[in-house]
Amino acid sequence: MMKQMVKCPHCGKRLEIKDASDLAGKRIKCPVCGTVNSYESFLKAFTADAGSDETRLIDDQRTIIPGLGNIRLPRLVFVKTGQEYPLKEGRQLVGRKPKESASEADVQVDTHGENFMSRSHFYIEVKKASNGSYRAYISNAANKNETVIGNEVLRGTDVLALSDGDVIRICSTEIRIRF
């Protein structure tokens, strides 16, 4: 599966196509303005401004920065289902989405019956670096089951830097961070 960034030649909205592997010669519809154009028109509109030197906002999740390309706020992905949970700048409490009771978590992960994750399990802090990219850091919250990043157990007051693709594991529950 090949992901591709394109731009609507009519409204200018930048879009991410999750599977662009067989779109050559086909027509696609912009979900924003409804215009139907060839895939090549969308691709050409995007690559036409790829050489621009200005920083451009794509949407509330992604930015084009010269020399770095497409910068995206990190998101958590529940590995079992592929469900994505967008993150924002600042500190966010991440926990399991409860069935009936309330949770204080900013990001509530639907674990589909896997109850290993606490309702207040860990914090993720997202910071913008001086070059415009984002960094994410994980620390413990009020949890009962240990949190493992790669092969490293998150203990007590540990704060670990996360990289794109790192897997956060709580027993059999796995969450991947993507930038």
SSE topology:
Layout: E1 4-7, E2 14-17, E3 27-29, E4 36-38, H1 39-48, E5 56-57, E6 62-65, E7 69-72, E8 75-78, E9 84-86, E10 90-96, E11 107-109, E12 122-128, E13 134-140, E14 147-149, E15 152-154, E16 159-162, E17 167-170, E18 173-178
Parallel strand pairs: 10-11
Antiparallel strand pairs: 1-2, 3-4, 5-6, 6-7, 8-9, 8-18, 10-12, 12-13, 13-16, 14-15, 14-17, 17-18
Give a brief description.
With 179 residues, this protein is mainly β. It folds into 2 domains: 4-70, no CATH class; 74-178, Tumour Suppressor Smad4. The chain is 6% helix and 42% strand.
Task: Write a structural description.
The chain has 179 residues and is mainly beta. The protein folds into two domains: 4-70, no CATH class; 74-178, Tumour Suppressor Smad4 (Sandwich). It contains one helix and 18 strands. It has one helix spanning 39-48; strands at residues 4-7, 14-17, 27-29, 36-38, 56-57, 62-65, 69-72, 75-78, 84-86, 90-96, 107-109, 122-128, 134-140, 147-149, 152-154, 159-162, 167-170, 173-178. A six-stranded antiparallel sheet has the order 9-8-18-17-14-15, with no helix packed on it. A five-stranded mixed sheet has the order 11-10-12-13-16, with no helix packed on it. Strands 5-6-7 form a three-stranded antiparallel sheet, with no helix packed on it.
